[in-house]
Amino acid sequence: xxxxxxxxxxxxxxxGACQQPDSNNNGTDSTGASKVDKIPVAVPAFQADSAYxxxxxxxxxxxxxxxxxxxxxxxxxxxxxxxxxxxxxxxxRTTVIGPNKEKLPCINIIGSFNPAAKQRVLLLSHWDxxxxxDEDAFDKTKKLDGADDGASGVGVLxxxxxxxxxxxxxxxxxxxxxxxxxxxxxxxxxxFCLGTQYWAKNPHIPGYKANYGILFxxxxxxGNQFFMEGVxxxxxxxxxxxxxxxGNQLGYSDFFRYxxxxxxxxxxxxxxxxxxxxxxxxxxxxxxDNNFATHWHTQNDNIDVIDRKTLKAVGQTLLQVxxxxxxxx
Length: 329
Fold this sequence. Notes:
By secondary structure, the chain is of the alpha/beta class. The chain has a single domain (9-14, 43-324), classed as Aminopeptidase. The protein has helices spanning 9-19, 48-60, 69-85, 147-166, 194-201, 230-249, 269-274, 308-324, and strands spanning 88-97, 103-113, 120-126, 172-178, 212-217, 280-284. It is globular. Keywords: Acyltransferase, Signal, Transferase. One of its GO terms (molecular function) is glutaminyl-peptide cyclotransferase activity. Residues 1-20 form the signal peptide.
């Protein structure tokens, strides 16, 4: 996934100016929900082994490239998994146009929890694999497993879904697994995130809204760290800081970094912000120099790079936020 390290500062600053939530002193938070203190609930323990197994299962299908048997097999498995956990599951099947005008089948899968709840959080990740390892030092035409870039975010969200099934959160939660994110051309940023672009224009429920969204991308690699990406800060700065604060409070300060590394990234959160108008931030592995992890878009992005410690840090932070303070920003 190109997730271009773009110079999007002007766009991001404009968007941030337009979308920063108004401060208020009327006893409500930025969503309009009451700020009355709630009694903390016992947050379930995120099972990193379970998330790891979900990642390994996706990888076992082979590269999840559009127009391949692996795409359909993995989609069928994801749909069945979400149906076993969520209250309602929606499946969007459509055709999108790739960077070379090719027609690509696209399968977006949405699982909803507490569908009647008005206050909602959108959680999303892409599940497809880039068709070639174009950042590889040796053979840029080879396929890659996409264990971290794609499967890890899905693995975290499936484990969260399993926990939501056993212990219902108070907030409404929607898990969006998007397809055809990573097929794009480096020369055209709009050729990425095609499944998310489709969903943002055609949500699973007409007029769908969430208070905010969280994108999980490359969240399982050994040594991964998460910096506060620039576009995310401009569109969903308070929500992102809340998530980072919780991660640090839980003892994961080595993962959730506050330093500004200057990265502005084109990823699935961009169409959710700009088309669906849902403030959304990106939890994505970056380095201090604002580059991606060394296994990004290479054949090294395989199951061997996945680390349960990274999965635990991300997953436990997510559960803590959802169960105890989803709107405390």
